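agent: user wants the structure for Polyhydroxybutyrate depolymerase from Kocuria gwangalliensis. delegating to structure tool.
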Amino acid sequence: MPTRQSGDGSLSVISRVALGAALLLALGTVLSPLLFSFDPDEETSAVSCTTYGLAADDPRAEPTQIIDASFRAGTTYSAAGELGEMAQTFTHNGLTGQYHVIDGGVDTNKPVGLVMHLHGDGAREYHDPSGRVTCLAAVAASHNALLVVPRSPDKTGAPTWWEDLKGNRDWLTSLVNDRILQDYPVDRNRITWMGYSGGAEMLSYGILAGPRQLVTGGAALVGGGGAPQGLTTDPTESQLETMPLWWVTGTEDDGSTTSAPFDAVSAAESGAAFYDDQGFERVDLQLLTGRNHYNMPDARILDDLMKTVEQDR
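agent: tool returned. relaying tokens verbatim.
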């Protein structure tokens, strides 16, 4: 696992009371895709995204549920949208992983953005997109962006991003460069990243430390995102000045419980402090009062980040 360092405390902490309750991911849990294989003719229902931080009167609060999470590659269901494709396969340098592309209703006559969402350990978000991922797709679409949910190519134990950091990072960047940006009408200047837990670790140790040219719409690291040993590529002046980098963690997500033994508070503090020390001017560390590893308002976080980026344009 990547070395985690203690933060230097140089950043001010913004404590916010967040809406929402209940993430679906459990650390280290390996879920069989068969548990989430649904009948494609099954009638879909609406999902309540108030669980993930949207207000009840928000028009995005009840999107159509995405019901398919099987590995029947090449099959597309209407719930994934016109441009959507579920359970696609991509191979790079001997590593094979899967990914979902979800279109919540983008307008291709306007610039189309991309949200890359990285799952936590166990890949629950990939295997069951019926709740949290459905809500993230609705938020992404409201900003005219596709949501892509890749599954790490890791095949040893629980699927993780960080155990083979370099190999998985190279697979991930190739997926974006050689598949998503080639096959979908995505504006390269509108690529947003969001990572949860182990996905936040990949963002901090992998993507932000090196190939950050793919982060053109900011990044949100939820429930983790520790400090790397150093940067593998030097940041540009524009990246230092304009790239929003948000670490968002619950105050109770400190590794003190058996259900969540990872100290995400310390990871977030050290990761945010590292990038702040490197000169990134738009680092924001948010510790949400009373929240833990499993009840973060993810849809609200993504929406706030994308609004911030749009206001800058």
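agent: one observation worth passing along. Strands lie at 14-16, 85-92, 95-102, 113-118, 145-151, 191-196, 219-222, 245-250, 283-288.
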